[in-house]
Amino acid sequence: MPNTCPVETPALSPNGCPISGRAAAFTPFNGPYQVDPGEALKWAREEEPVFFSPEIGYWVVTRYEDVKSVFRDNILFSPSIALEKITPAGPEAQAILQKYGFAMQRTMVNEDEPHHMERRRLLLDDFLPENLQKHESAMRTLTRRYMDRFIDRGHADLVEDIFSEIPLTIALHFLGVPEKGAEQLRGFAVAHTLNTWGRPTQEEQLEISENVGRFWQTANRVLDDMIANPNGEGWMYETVRQHFKHPDAVPESYLRSMMMAILAAAHETTSNATANAFWTLLNNRESWEELCETPSLIPSAVEECLRVAGSIVAWRRIATDDTTVGGVDIPKGGKLLIVQASANKDNRHWENADDFDIYRDNASEHMTFGYGAHQCMGKNIGRMEMRIFLEEFTRRLPHMRLVKGQVFENLPNVSFRGPSKLLVEWDPALNPEKTDPSVLDRSLSFKIGAPVREGILRRVVVRDVIDDSTGVKRFVLADPKGRKLPKFSAGAHIDLVVGDYRRKYSLCGDASDTKTFEIAILRENNGRGGSKFFHDNVAPGDVVHIAGPRNHFRLDANAPQYILIAGGIGITPILAMADRLKASGKPYHIHFCGKSRDRLPLLDRVQDRHGQSLSLHITAEGTRLDLDRALSKVGGNDRVYACGPDRLLDELESLSANWPEGTLKYELFSSANGALDSSVEHAFEVELRDSGMTVSVAADQTLYDALRASGVDMPMDCGEGLCGTCETRVIDGEIDHRDRVLSAKERAQGDRLMTCCSRARNGKLVLAL
Ligand code: HEM
Ligand code: FES
Question: Per the database record, which ranges form the FAD-binding FR-type domain (predicted)?
Answer without folding.
Answer: 455-556
